[in-house]
Amino acid sequence: MKTALTRSKNKNKISNGVVDWIITDSCNYNCSYCRNESRKPKNENKDDNLDELLIKIKKNLKGIWRFNLIGGEPFVRSDFLHVVEQLASMNHHFSIYTNFSSSWGKIKRFLEITGKNLDIFYASLHLEETNLDSFLEKAIKVKKIFPDLFIISIAGSNQKEILESAVKEFNKYKIPHIIRMQRLRNDKFLNYPKDYLDFMKKSNLKQLAFFDESKINIIDKSLYAKRHKKIFLFKGYNCWAGSRYFVLLNNGDAFKCFPAKREKKGYLGNMLNDSFLLKKNFSECEFDVCFCSDVYFNGFIEKRS
Ligand code: SF4
Ligand code: SF4
User: Fold this and answer.
1) Which domain holds residue 167?
2) Where residue 102 sits, what CATH number does that domain have?
3) What is the 31 CA–ligand 1 centroid distance (Å)?
C-alpha cells in the first residue's frame, strides 16, 4: 500500500489536478536576483494568441483542474483577463503569483471573475522595484475581498529595516507572509548577517500557525540551504507529476514538472498539435531536486511500496 507523503488541507479540494501555466515570460520588473532565464522586458514580448490553446485545454482537461497562473508577471499580458474568463467558464480553479504591480482595477476584476474558484493569491514583495506603501495599499484591498492572500517577501541585502516595517504591517492586518532568502544564479543563497537571518527566522516561525503540518516542515526548513536541499529530495519516490500535475507553456508544450522541463525529460507532448497525453499512472522521480511545491502540497508524491 502506498502512503501520501504530504496532504493538503486546502478547503478547495482539487478533483483532477494542477497545472502550472507559464502564461508569459514578460515582466515589468527587473529584479537583480531574478532566476527566470527566459524573462523578457514587458515591451519586448508581443502577446501570443492563446485562444487556440484555450480550445485545446477545454478538449484535453476534463473535470476541474487548478490553474496556477505564473510568469514573468501574469498581469502584463494585455489579454490576461480574457484568458482568465475563458478558464472560469470551464469551471476550473485558480491560483495566481503576481508582483502586485498591476492597477487595482485589473486586480479587482480578476477577483470578480475567479470568485469562489480562486484558491490562493500569492503577491510577492520586491523592494528593489516597489515601495511598501503602495504594495500594502493593494494588499489591504485584496484581503478585504479575498482573505486567502499570501505575501512572499524577497530579502534583499540591506533591507532588514524596511522588511521589519513590512512584517509589522502584515501582522497588523493579519496577512500571512513569509520572507524568502535570495537564491543566486549558482543556487547558493545570499550571505546575510546573523541578525538579519535571526529576524527572518523569527518572523517566518511566527507564521506557522497559518499552515498545516505538512507545510510547516517545508517552510521552516527552506530557511537554510542545507536543510532546504534535504526536504526537496524525492528521487526514487512515486510521483503523480505527468498525470495529476504538469507544466504548460504557451506554445502548447507540456512537461511533467519543472525539473523535467529543465532537463528536457518528461515531455508530455504538445496540446496545439494534439500530441499531448497525460500519463495514466505515477512514475518514479528521477530528479535530484524537486521545486514543484504544488506536487507535494497536494499529496501527489507517494512512498515506494
Ligand atoms: S518580479 Fe519576479 S519575474 Fe519579475 S523580475 Fe522580479 S523576480 Fe523576476
Ligand atoms: S522532481 Fe518532478 S517527478 Fe520528482 S517529485 Fe518533483 S514533481 Fe515529482
Assistant:
1) 17-302
2) 3.20.20
3) 6
**Residue whose C-alpha cell reads 533591507 in the numeric block:** 159
C-alpha 301, offset from chain centre: 18
Domain annotation covers residue 12: no
- From the CA of 36, the nearest ligand is 1
User: Within its chain, how far is the Cα of 70 from the centroid?
Assistant: 6
Tens digit of pLDDT at every position of the chain (305 positions): 333 333 234 444 567 899 999 999 999 999 988 877 666 666 555 668 899 999 999 999 999 999 999 999 999 999 999 999 999 999 999 999 999 999 999 999 999 999 999 998 999 999 999 999 999 999 999 999 999 899 999 999 889 999 999 999 999 999 999 898 887 766 678 889 999 999 998 888 777 655 544 443 444 444 333 344 445 677 888 899 999 999 999 999 999 999 999 888 899 999 999 999 999 999 999 988 777 777 877 778 876 65
Ligand 1 in reach of 39 Cβ (< 6 A): yes
Strands 26-27 and 40-41: parallel
Question: From CA 189, how far away is CA 123, in angstroms rounded?
Answer: 21
The grid coordinates of residue 219 equal 517552510
Measured from the CB, is residue 30 less than 6 Å from ligand 1? Answer: yes
> Of the residues 34, 44, 181, which should be mutated to test ligand 1's pocket, given the most ligand atoms within 8 Å of the CB?
34
Q: Has residue 250 been placed in a domain?
A: yes
What's the CA-to-centroid distance between 263 and ligand 2, angstroms?
A: 12
d(CA 153, CA 125): 5
